[in-house]
DNA sequence: GCGGCTTCTTGATCAGGATCAGTCCGCGCG
DNA sequence: CGCGCGGACTGATCCTGATCAAGAAGCCGC
């Protein structure tokens, strides 16, 4: 019974959503915002870009956005909510591959196999923009900016895949995980130091290749060290620098 | 002193090279062979494809093909020899990211950051085809087949990144590694059951996030179990099925 | 041939995290 | 209200693989 348990009281949770789009503009924080800007608002090409987008959802917590083996026809940008991608091996064990926040894109790894190689599951109620991939490819051949944007999205994801590689201690992994989430929220315009973990401890553990008990222990210790405030799934990064130092070697750069 | 030490005697090593190209055709086993075929031999577009290719090398063992931070201008297809990509963290520790065989492509993860995010080092004397990326992008906008090919290459690499993820035992990792190498050699027309490990035990261990001692021990045990024959860096997969069963859960599919 | 080097192998010990087990808490429901 | 259930936290033990250490085998140049 240590007395600093109260250190991490957190009130009202924020509710991230990347939906400020209208019939002409895409959401500012969307991964495709760059493509829009490159095209220029109001040009006919932007119209074309809109024609191949379809708003889908809402999906409820636990719903599948797509399943392993589904034929690949489109990629999805998260508009609201968060998503995990995972695959299930022969023995039925789940393998969490990643978490996706509002503004991020899922489904890129399905282009080559032409079917989705993993499940995508909503962690909260979620909505998406669905981009028909054949239409997008066709548009890309006419618009170098769109093509380049797709190349960059793909290449970027290649870089992030190495976050979970490496033999690193549980402390390093958890610290890097928190920093990564924070900076991704910040990049989309949300608070980078205070947010809700939309996934369970088990999902975090699975993603980081740890046991959920270990994640619990590390988070508790981080809190007692004053690095974070924590209450349930609400977290605040109190000493982001220290966390970043802990996690460096895992983090990009 | 066990008597089965002799079980793994292997004579003459094969010397993989993917260089059957001439002034008109690309090498059959090259990752771009598909793009060539899609275009059709003799068409003017194939000429265009050739214009942006440049044969470079030979590089000697240990030479850098590119270094972390080098400005990104081109991607490279391995024509002969093998390559490892790695990065060095702040503490000076090396992190091996991947091995690339003749016919495979390196440099795709540099598109987004616009500079190479890792080193590429020749593990044997090696030669490459260098594809100017700006020229390739420009060509892709005119030729949907080339664009699609690039998308597929990128997406494919996304899939392979998950090989080293997951918390798996040393046995599973080493088995999966051997199977993966074998199937990649086979896909390029070489023997998929008998090949040389062009990288050191230390590199394998680093890539698999194990200690080199562990790799040694596992390989030795695999040999004593009759799963492989092994002499120095020559290896033969004697019971590929058993290895694949061991490694499944790591391997694609 | 011989030193000097790196790589590989094998053995002995150690530690980080998995696993097993138990408790607590919040929540939905009869 | 009590009950059951899943998620989260904590404690005790175990096991895999890292680490430390030493020897064996190649592979140079000379």
Properties at a glance:
homodimer, 253 residues, alpha+beta, Jelly Rolls, Arc Repressor Mutant, subunit A, 2 domains, four-stranded antiparallel β-sheet, 8 helices, 21% strand, disordered N terminus, DNA-binding
How many distinct domains of chain A?
2
Question: In which range does the helix fraction of chain A lie?
Answer: 25-40%
Sketch the topology of chain A as an H/E string, one letter per element: HHEEEEEEEEHHHEHHEEH
The H-level CATH homologous superfamily of the largest domain in chain A, spelled out, is: Jelly Rolls
- Give unreliable regions of chain A as ranges: 1-14
> What do we call the CATH topology of the largest domain in chain A?
Jelly Rolls
CATH class of the largest domain in chain A: Mainly Beta
What does this structure look like?
Two copies of one chain form a homodimer. Chain A contains eight helices and eleven strands. Chain A folds into two domains: 33-162, Jelly Rolls (Sandwich); 165-247, Winged helix-like DNA-binding domain superfamily/Winged helix DNA-binding domain (Arc Repressor Mutant, subunit A). Residues 1-14 of chain A have low confidence and may be disordered. A four-stranded antiparallel beta sheet of chain A has the order 1-8-3-6. In chain A, strands 2-7-4-5 form a four-stranded antiparallel beta sheet. In chain A, helix 3 (133-142) packs across helix 4, helix 5 packs across helix 8 (240-247) and helix 6 crosses helix 7. Chain A has 253 residues and is of the alpha+beta class. Chain A binds a DNA duplex (30 and 30 nucleotides) through residues 167, 169-170, 200-202, 210-214, 216-217, 219-220, 232.
């Amino acid at each position: 019974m240590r007395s600093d348990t109260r250190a991490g009281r957190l009130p009202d949770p924020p509710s991230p959503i990347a939906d400020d789009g209208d019939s002409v503009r895409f959401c500012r924080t969307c991964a495709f915002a760059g493509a829009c800007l490159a095209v220029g608002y109001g040009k006919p090409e932007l119209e074309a870009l809109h024609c191949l987008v379809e708003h889908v959802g809402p999906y409820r917590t636990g719903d599948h956005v797509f399943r392993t083996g589904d034929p690949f026809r489109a990629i999805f940008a998260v508009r609201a909510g968060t998503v995990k991608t995972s695959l299930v091996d022969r023995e039925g064990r789940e393998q969490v591959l990643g978490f996706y926040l509002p503004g991020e894109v899922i489904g890129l790894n399905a282009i080559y196999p032409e079917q989705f190689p993993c499940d995508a599951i909503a962690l909260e109620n979620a909505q998406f923009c669905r981009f028909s991939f054949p239409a997008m490819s066709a548009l890309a051949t006419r618009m170098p900016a769109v093509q380049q944007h797709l190349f960059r999205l793909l290449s970027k994801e290649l870089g992030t895949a190495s976050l979970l590689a490496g033999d690193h201690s549980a402390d390093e992994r958890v610290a890097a995980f928190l920093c990564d989430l924070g900076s991704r929220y910040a990049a989309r315009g949300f608070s980078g130091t205070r947010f809700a973990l939309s996934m369970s401890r088990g999902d975090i553990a699975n993603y980081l290749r740890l046991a959920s008990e270990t994640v619990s222990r590390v988070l508790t210790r981080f809190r007692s060290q004053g690095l974070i405030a924590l209450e349930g799934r609400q977290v605040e990064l109190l000493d982001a620098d220290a966390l970043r130092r802990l996690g460096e070697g895992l983090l990009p750069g």
